[in-house]
Amino acid sequence: MNSLKDRWEIIVGYVALIVSLSAFKDELRALPLNLGFYHTTCADFLFTLILGFLAALHFYLIPFFLSSTRFANLTVLRWLEQFAYFAFVMLATSPVVLALIVGANSAIEYLLSLPPNTQSFAYKAITAGFTSLLSFFSGFLAARYRRQKYSAERQNLENQEIHDLESSQKLFDDSYYSQSILEAFKVLELHLRRLINEKDVPFRSTKFQDLLDVALKLKLIHHSDQKRIDDIRQMRNSAAHLNVAFTKEQAAQAISFVRELIIRTQTS
Fold first, then answer.
1. What does the pLDDT average to over 114-121?
2. What is the pLDDT at residue 17?
């Protein structure tokens, strides 16, 4: 959580720095930028950068909010999230790339005596080259970050799943049958979340029914599993809220089904 907080503080601080430069818009308007393809000013570039950050934020928020619903399995949400990462990396590094482009163009102008047409072509080639490199770097970094993010989430879910499964079995062995059902249900929920994560779906809903709906739509479980899952969910609710005591046989059936589901879905 602290690393996430620190990451967002860096992002917000960077964006705030960009926005704060708007106080110098008159001075920035007086600084021309020759990119070969077109001429602009630093003020226009700053304005474009701010609009870009706002657009990237919206592209990220759309899948973020919809991922908390049963529509999380929509493919377009994955593309929107990936594009949001790509856009942010590209926007964040674009000032550095722009400085390199301007520096290279200035070096050509002052160090080489080229005909106007050749010089214009050189400007365009440099801009196109740096822009292509920026796009490739942004796409690579965004994809790498997303893979690492989902991999870390998947590993955490798997570790918690193993821990809770062991806890459920220990409670069962110690004759705490209702408590073992509670833990078995937690294992079931964690396992379904891990399966969805492995499908690269940005699912964040805390509602178990949404989790079950997405798992069924992705064909991670069979419709024939739904009755057994509903039975375990009802036992879990009764044990948690009504303090109902369940038998050894009921607890054994719940744990057995969860173990069988884990084995089946891992080998399918």
1. 78
2. 66
